[in-house]
Specification:
single chain; 505 residues; alpha/beta; Glutamyl-tRNA Synthetase, domain 2; Ribosomal Protein L25, Chain P; 3 domains; seven-stranded mixed beta sheet; four-stranded antiparallel beta sheet; 27% helix
């Protein structure tokens, strides 16, 4: 009997909440900002949020955090929805922070009327200076003590477009001496005269993330609002706003990011790679985006397994990319149909095989019987990989060499009799004899070989272009290195082989 998997800290919390009767069911949300394509960090959050409501009664919302019209686009909205569905998840409600712009505006009015928010005409530099540092108390803005009526009037004029970008902000009135810098009168609204991908030009003021986030959670009755660790300092403001607005008490929980080695997981840095043409686009197979992984051949099952194996915790670390590749191999081993390909071909001629004969050999498609078998055409002339032949074999060399025998996968044992070279010394052809009694599955030859190599029939081979992808960066954690992270891009991360042969049978 297999050992039951232990609960992570969020599952412990949820089970306790359900057992105590605090909730009859749970509601989570996945809240991406539509300013780029989703990457593997998002995959962890997707699997976590949707996975919890698959395990426990409840549902998950997809809510786009579209509060910054300058960087957001419907292209990103569409790609995010496609990625989530491809991973195998469905959301109950498709929502947008912009759905709540009217609600959020009224929440801001409520805070102003309670004397808990004010309109500030300070510049961003002045605001930063007055906030001071974590070791010294901040100073109040000269506009902090405006009257409620004056703040209501100014905020309405902000909404009506009377002020230029950056000339006014709405700030919460909390504590300029707080040890938490985020509680030193944080910004709630800023002016941006920009066209929004959903609301058009209706608004020229937009809520800050911290103001939209918790209030949107509350509107949707989110029970467990799950964020990454960088939002720990934001939780105090999250709770303060919900308390002062007297709205549904959603609660924020944080877990650690899981970064992948030899890549970057910042959308800002990924956007640089795209815009500066270091990659072909967001879905370049070298990118850690979900769409890039899909193009590279990763399956949704392998990514879900990876996220499950990595798990969640409260301490950040870098996960080796090889674990993700292992999860893919495990999945493909049981699901992928086999083919044989030769990328660097050298011709092998079987001298004692009939010239015009073609034999149909049978080979398994994989270890799972449900995959069935495939037929492979076998003939006198074959392609094999150049690296499978060594003119002067090294110690413990078990592949082809002068006088050596090797098994051709799913076919016969052959022995190398001779080989020919061109004027530059490159081997151009290997001449072999085969043993007709050594056919795979019916071997009566009594011969034994340690090596098995793959092959493709010359007469039946198809030509194609192959792209071999390697790590995008030369160092494990490019973001932590000195200088520009792009200085560590691997120049050999993409190798294109234009002439090769492969079996499609």
């Amino acid at each position: 009997m297999s050992e039951e998997k232990s609960l992570n800290f969020l599952e412990d919390i949820i089970e306790s909440d359900l057992k105590s009767g605090k909730y009859k069911s749970i509601v989570t949300r996945f809240p991406p900002e539509p300013n780029g394509y989703l990457h593997m960090g998002h995959a962890t959050a997707i699997c976590l949020n949707f996975g919890l409501t698959k395990k426990y009664p409840g549902y998950t919302n997809l809510r786009f955090d579209d509060t910054n019209p300058v960087t957001e686009d419907t292209e990103y909205v569409d790609s995010i929805k496609e990625d989530i569905k491809w991973l195998g998840f469905e959301w109950k409600n498709e929502l947008y922070a912009s759905d709540y712009f009217d609600n959020l505006y009224q929440f801001a009015i409520t805070l102003i009327k309670k004397g808990l928010a004010y309109v500030d005409a300070s510049t961003s530099e002045e605001i930063a200076r007055l906030k001071a540092t974590p070791t010294e108390a901040g100073k109040a803005s000269p506009y902090r003590n405006r009257s409620i009526d004056e703040n209501l009037d100014l905020f309405a004029r902000m909404k009506n477009g009377e002020f230029a970008d950056g000339t006014r902000t709405l700030r919460a009135k909390i504590d300029m001496s707080s040890n938490n810098m985020l509680m030193r009168d944080p910004l709630l609204y800023r002016i941006k005269h920009a066209h929004h991908h959903r609301t058009g030009d209706k608004w020229c003021i937009y809520p800050m993330y911290d103001f939209a986030h918790g209030q949107s959670d509350s509107i949707e009755n989110i029970t467990h609002s799950i964020c990454t660790l960088e939002f720990v300092p934001h939780r105090e403001l999250y709770d303060w706003l919900i308390e002062k607005l007297e709205i549904y008490p959603s609660h924020q929980y944080e877990f650690a990011r899981r970064n992948l080695s030899y890549t970057v997981m910042s959308k800002r840095k990924l956007l640089q790679l795209v815009n500066e043409k270091h990659v072909s686009g967001w879905d370049d197979p070298r990118m850690p985006t979900i769409s890039g992984m899909r193009r590279r051949g990763f399956t949704p099952e392998s990514i879900r397994t990876f996220c499950d194996k990595v798990g969640i915790a409260k301490r950040e670390n870098v996960i080796d990319f090889s674990l993700l590749e292992f999860c893919l191999r495990e999945d493909l081993n049981h699901t992928a149909l086999r083919v044989m390909a030769v990328l660097d071909p050298i011709k092998l001629v079987i001298s004692n095989y009939e010239d015009d004969k073609t034999e149909e050999l049978t080979s398994e498609n994989g270890p799972d019987e449900s995959l069935g078998n495939r037929t492979l055409p076998f003939s006198k002339e074959l392609w094999i990989e150049r690296e499978d032949f060594m003119e002067e074999p090294a110690k413990k060399w078990f592949r082809l060499a002068p006088g050596a025998m090797v098994r051709l996968k799913s076919a016969y044992i052959v022995k190398c009799d001779s080989f020919t070279k061109d004027i530059e010394g490159n081997v151009t052809q290997i001449n072999c004899t085969y043993f007709s009694e050594s056919k795979s599955g019916n071997d009566t030859s009594g011969l034994a070989t340690k090596g098995v190599i793959h092959w493709v029939s010359v007469a039946h081979a198809a030509s194609a272009q192959i792209r071999l992808y390697d790590r995008l960066f030369k160092v494990e954690n490019p973001s932590s290195e000195e200088g520009d992270f792009k200085d560590y891009i691997n120049p050999n991360s993409l190798q294109i082989i234009s002439k090769h042969t492969l079996s499609l049978l």
